[in-house]
Amino acid sequence: MTTAPASARAVLARTLIMRTAERLYATHGLAEVSLRQIGEAAGQRNKSAVQYHFSGRDDLIKAILAEHAEAIERHRLALAARQGEPGPRDRVRHIVLPRIEHHIELGTPSWYGRFLAQVTVEPALREYAVRAHLNTASLRRLHDAHGSGVGRSKDMTRQLIVHMSAELETELAREQPPAAVAAAAWRRLGADLVTAITGLTDALGTAAGRVRQPDQSVPGRGLGG
Amino acid sequence: MTTAPASARAVLARTLIMRTAERLYATHGLAEVSLRQIGEAAGQRNKSAVQYHFSGRDDLIKAILAEHAEAIERHRLALAARQGEPGPRDRVRHIVLPRIEHHIELGTPSWYGRFLAQVTVEPALREYAVRAHLNTASLRRLHDAHGSGVGRSKDMTRQLIVHMSAELETELAREQPPAAVAAAAWRRLGADLVTAITGLTDALGTAAGRVRQPDQSVPGRGLGG
User: Fold this and answer.
1) Distance of alpha carbon B173 from alpha carbon A168, whole angstroms
2) B141 and B37 in one domain?
3) CA torsion, points B142, B144, B145, B146, in degrees to nearest 10?
4) Which of A95, A197, B178, B207 is the most buried (most CB within 10 A)?
5) Count of CB contacts below 8 A, A vs B?
């Protein structure tokens, strides 16, 4: 370790800090964890290590989100490579399943699910989380192709994936089942999310066709990435 | 004010602290607001005022939740009194609409929606929020009658109501529309939630009947109140 070049040591320190922050935030909450506690738990001797490697809490959190987004995008590309361009009924699977595969790859216990759920409701971070982390180009294409590109259906899809994943992660962290059992629980959640999101999107589409034209100009329609 | 008996003054102080806490938490986040800041913003001269009236942060938060739960329950009873015992297709309306009516009554800006969304993902509070605040006896009866009493459908219903309400509240707080426009946006969200939840519950019920028997013994099925 002491012979590693400075840049490699810096990369290692950044990675350690990110993993530690995610774990502490997930288990104790954004409100209960200071940057100094993160640095100490990550084995950094310098009290300002986190501020040295990241300019502050929000940059640290954005770096963690970016790393997960890349991994999820790789799962999405792999799914498309295996199965080809998704047909109309497959698009919800291509929205949901890459996130499920990412959770399976993270193993148990993981912290990303609970961490992300907190970040998406934190006033200073929620807009960034929705626009940059949860609304990537590949996701936008899938939503547009699925007819859920605007409005409720897209927002509900995002909320269900984020918060149902955080709940399953909480439960698995408590029960610590064998890896195969955890993977099966994630796949079951994935299948249920695909079913539920397809059902709610169809229902909203039918209701919209029946009772009103889409209206983008009023509150309650604009937000949500 | 100075002539009010101590108990009335204590009630007033508690109420002021609760309203202030909810507003500060909603707009700045649980992580960024101290009990001392809440006391100061609520006009309390004593630096330990919040600890005097509530034993700490979690008790303060539980008191705020309890107050809202009572108001929502009143809306639910009023709806049942107006419309009688709900039929099968009305039960989702009786789950969703009392929360929507509560938001309309709170006016704009309100803070409860964003406050609740944060509380439900906070590690120290989430279980309490789900079990005590979001799973009242009247709600359990409606879920059981609707066939969504266990498992995914109930959990998804809760997540959609909490987090879609928080998002609309964020948007209304930013845009500050006239009260009638805000009320219409809440009613539109209520109608869309009823449609979406009915759609996803039907879809999950159909899929469960097709591919598997319910299994309560595996992870991913037990949690969620």
Assistant:
1) 32
2) no
3) 80
4) A197
5) 164
Asked if A27's CB is within 8 angstroms of B188's CB, the reply is: no
**Residue B30 at interface with chain A, using a CB cutoff of 8 Å:** yes
Task: Count H helices and E strands in chain B, helices first.
Answer: 10, 0
| B173 in the same domain as B93 | yes
Query: In this predicted model, what pLDDT tens digit does every residue of B92-102 receive, in sequence order?
Result: 999 999 999 99
Asked, for residue A177, whether it belongs to a domain, the answer is: yes
Whether A164 has its CB under 8 Å from any CB of chain B: the answer is: yes
How many contiguous H segments (helices) and E segments (strands) does chain A have? 10, 0
Based on the domain organization, do A40 and A64 belong to the same domain?
A: no
A108 shares a domain with A32: no
Q: What range defines the domain where residue A85 resides?
A: 58-211
Q: Which residues in chain A have Cβ-Cβ distances shorter than 8 Å to B155?
A: 164, 167
Q: Is A166 in contact with B201 (CB distance < 8 Å)?
A: no
State ipTM: 0.88
Q: Which of A168, A166, A75, A162 is nearest to A126 (CA)?
A: A162
B117, B202: one domain? yes
What is the Cα–Cα distance from A94 to A72, expressed in whole angstroms? 11
Give the closest-approach CA distance of A208 to chain B in angstroms: 9
| Rounded-to-integer distance, Cα A216 and Cα B20, Å | 33
pLDDT tens-digit readout, B176-204:
999 999 999 999 999 999 999 999 999 99
3-state secondary structure of B114: helix
| Contact with chain B for residue A203, Cβ under 8 A | yes
Within a domain: residue A221?
Answer: no
Answer with the one of A54, A73, A93 that is the final residue of a domain.
A54
Q: Which of B54, B74, B89 is the last residue before a domain boundary?
A: B54
> Structurally, how many domains does chain B consist of?
2
Nearest to A110 by CA among A170, A190, A58: A170
Based on the fold, state whether residues A90 and A6 are members of the same structural domain.
Answer: no
B225 in a domain, yes or no? no
pLDDT digits (tens, 9 = 90+) for A33-74: 999 999 999 999 999 999 999 999 999 999 999 999 999 999
Q: Spell out a b/e string for A72-90, using b for 16 or more CB atoms within 10 Å of the CB, else e.
A: bbebbeebbeeeeebeeeb
Residue A19: inside a domain: yes
